[in-house]
Backbone:
């Protein structure tokens, strides 16, 4: 922060093709203290953004290195971690998760690096599901001796790089946020796609309790971590838990207990492939055993508290889910995109002023 | 003399049994009707909420309303099958956390269910949260059932979390060493874990209430176990009882032994366990104290019991 004292924040978001990255950029755009938002991702954002500069590229070490130094980036938000196999295969995801993280951190490291804050989005899936799990995992507890799924292993490797980076860069605030499942009308995760199935397949004889965080709380947590940098490892989750069967009931769907609890790799994956749905192994463990985390450290550190409990988040999501068709029908505001293009060509300062005015004009209709 | 009294008792008992048999049968039948009636009305109430998902569970997935609806089944076994006699319920606190520590026996953990019913119906009508072994959470249906009914894993952090939330927690420090022991070893307490339960109670500043249960050992007299099959099924043991493989599924019906449950006076961990260097020794001392109390209680209850099935 010292390098940018008195100036606005200049933020790089790695990974904007998923909901959390795009949502964070949208919040930062409305924040008057943020001078510059740059996003790097191979794919574009999930919705239109006003003043975020997007570089469509893979996360290569040299690109990140050049970007942070030339643009004097002070904060890097690393949001590529994903276990979502519906869009990419496992090999691609492993490259994005582990090699991507390694490249981003390598680009940010060095004594000449202007980066003072790093926020890494991790996943509570790192704890994994199993019969020996405690009811709530705390950050201080030791992880199971061996990772049981590829995603757990990816997350561990990526977090290890982040911890190494923290050790090498003592002047940098490095926060790892382990998010639980995020639900909401815009969130496109494995969980929301799973719950959107016409009949929801469940594991025979298992009904785990889960934590689902509403997207508003998730974005709020992410924005706070970006704008008020802290160092450490934090679980981000709502209060309480909710049984999977209850979420399905609230969604007004039927639970189909068809996934056999044994021989999963053989039978389940074949069956799901026939249905053209493929759930990764960590997700199957989630719907078999579930896991929940203790998020008090995160709440204390940022003096925050999630707006919705797990039950309330699930209830709100189920209500919002029913009107999703109406939301989809809303055509994007084309004129605004053209205006933004014009404003951007006229210079950044001007665009920022417009964004500020827009913020004032909209008043309390937006958070952040 | 001794023989005469025995004969006399037998004669009078069989006579009494003959006289009261018809009435007893109608009583039991009405109890079953009552159970179904209360369950049906309870389930009808629940159905409306359940279908809409309008209910709340606690942090451990415990659903009290649902548990109270299925409880009449356990109450029926409690009243009419095992005819549980309870003493010392006044030792259970009306509020605040406490750790109930009990001996563990019988192939299936019916003792946990009976202690839960005893506290709920004859004690301070509070729900008891039992700590269970991890293999149960790995078993289909059972994992769903026990979580809904308020049980959680015997993890030190879970225990502490429940006790600090002012819950009554039930723990069986013997674990499967207790339930899986052969019939010839009945009512002989096994090793009481490593004193982890004392540590948890001391950390949460709650008392320990020793509980001794008699009758549970005779529900399934375990003569031996089937080797290898347990590994295949993912359970700790596959028992052989006089009826179990012999009568097929009918062998799963537990024997109707007469039960007694005694809740002993609380042991204050706050005063007995210091925070200093001698903590480890204090914890072992309290573990031995609790174990001794339960063993003495069992001895007393067994001395008072004349017949396994009639009490």
Residues:
């Amino acid at each position: 922060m010292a390098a940018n004292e008195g100036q606005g924040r200049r933020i790089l978001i790695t990974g904007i093709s998923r909901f959390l990255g795009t949502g964070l950029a949208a919040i930062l755009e409305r924040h008057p203290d943020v001078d510059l938002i740059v996003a790097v991702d191979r794919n574009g954002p999930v919705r239109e953004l006003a003043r975020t500069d997007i570089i469509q590229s893979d996360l290569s070490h040299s690109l990140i290195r050049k970007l942070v130094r030339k643009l004097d980036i002070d904060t890097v938000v690393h949001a590529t971690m994903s276990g979502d196999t519906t869009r990419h295969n496992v090999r691609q995801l492993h490259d994005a998760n582990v090699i991507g993280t390694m490249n981003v951190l390598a680009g940010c490291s060095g004594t000449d690096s202007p980066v003072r804050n790093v926020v890494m989005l991790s996943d509570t899936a790192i704890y994994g599901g199993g019969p020996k799990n405690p009811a709530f995992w705390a950050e201080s507890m030791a992880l199971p001796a061996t990772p049981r799924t590829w995603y757990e292993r990816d997350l561990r490797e990526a977090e290890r790089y982040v911890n190494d980076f923290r050790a090498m860069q003592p002047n940098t605030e490095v926060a790892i946020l382990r998010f639980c499942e995020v639900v909401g009308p815009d969130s496109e995760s494995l969980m929301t796609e799973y719950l959107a199935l016409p009949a929801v397949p469940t594991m025979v004889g298992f009904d785990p309790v889960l934590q689902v965080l509403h997207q508003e709380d998730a974005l709020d947590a992410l924005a706070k971590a970006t704008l008020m940098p802290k160092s450490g490892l934090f679980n981000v989750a709502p209060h309480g838990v909710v049984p999977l069967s209850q979420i399905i009931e609230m969604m007004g769907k039927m639970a189909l207990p068809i996934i056999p609890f044994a021989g999963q790799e053989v039978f389940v994956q074949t069956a799901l492939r026939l249905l053209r749905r493929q759930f990764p192994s960590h997700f199957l463990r989630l719907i078999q055993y579930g896991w929940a985390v203790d998020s008090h450290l995160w709440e204390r550190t940022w003096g925050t508290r999630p707006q919705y409990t797990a039950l309330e988040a699930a209830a709100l999501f189920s209500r919002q889910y029913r009107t999703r068709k109406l939301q989809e029908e809303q055509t994007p505001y084309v004129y605004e995109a053209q205006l933004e293009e014009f404003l951007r060509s006229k210079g950044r300062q001007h665009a920022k002023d417009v964004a500020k005015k827009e913020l004032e004009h909209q008043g309390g209709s937006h958070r952040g | 003399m001794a023989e005469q009294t025995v004969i006399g008792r037998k004669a009078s008992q069989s006579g009494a049994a003959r006289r009261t048999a018809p009435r007893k049968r109608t009583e039991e039948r009405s109890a079953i009707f009552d159970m179904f009636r209360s369950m049906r009305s309870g389930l009808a109430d629940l159905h409306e909420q359940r279908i809409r998902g309008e209910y709340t569970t606690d942090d451990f997935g415990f659903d009290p309303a649902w548990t109270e609806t299925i409880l009449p089944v356990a109450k029926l076994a409690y009243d009419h099958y095992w005819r549980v006699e309870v003493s010392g319920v006044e030792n259970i606190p009306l509020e605040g956390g406490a750790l109930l520590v009990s001996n563990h026996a019988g192939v299936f953990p019916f003792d946990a269910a009976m202690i839960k019913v005893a506290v709920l119906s004859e004690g301070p009508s509070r729900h008891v949260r039992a700590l269970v072994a991890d293999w149960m959470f790995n078993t289909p249906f059972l994992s769903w059932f026990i979580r809904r009914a308020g049980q959680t894993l015997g993890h030190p952090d879970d225990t502490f979390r429940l006790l600090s939330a002012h819950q009554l927690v039930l723990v069986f420090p013997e674990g499967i060493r207790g339930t899986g022991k052969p019939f010839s070893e009945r009512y002989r307490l096994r090793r009481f874990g490593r004193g982890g339960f004392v540590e948890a109670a001391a950390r949460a500043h709650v008392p320990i209430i020793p509980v001794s249960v008699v009758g549970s050992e005779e529900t399934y007299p375990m003569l031996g176990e089937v080797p290898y099959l347990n590994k295949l099924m993912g359970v700790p043991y596959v028992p052989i009882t006089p009826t179990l493989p012999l009568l097929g599924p009918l062998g799963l019906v537990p024997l109707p032994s007469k039960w007694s449950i005694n809740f002993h006076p609380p042991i204050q961990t706050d005063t007995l366990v210091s925070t200093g260097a001698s903590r480890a020794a204090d914890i072992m001392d309290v573990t031995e104290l609790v174990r001794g109390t339960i063993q003495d209680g069992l001895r007393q209850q067994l001395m008072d019991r004349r017949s396994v099935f009639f009490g």
Residues 65-304 of chain B form a domain with the Glycerol-3-phosphate (1)-acyltransferase fold (CATH 3.40.1130). The mean pLDDT of chain B is 86. Strands of chain B lie at 85-87, 98-102, 128-132, 152-153, 168-171, 208-214, 224-225, 239-240, 260-263.
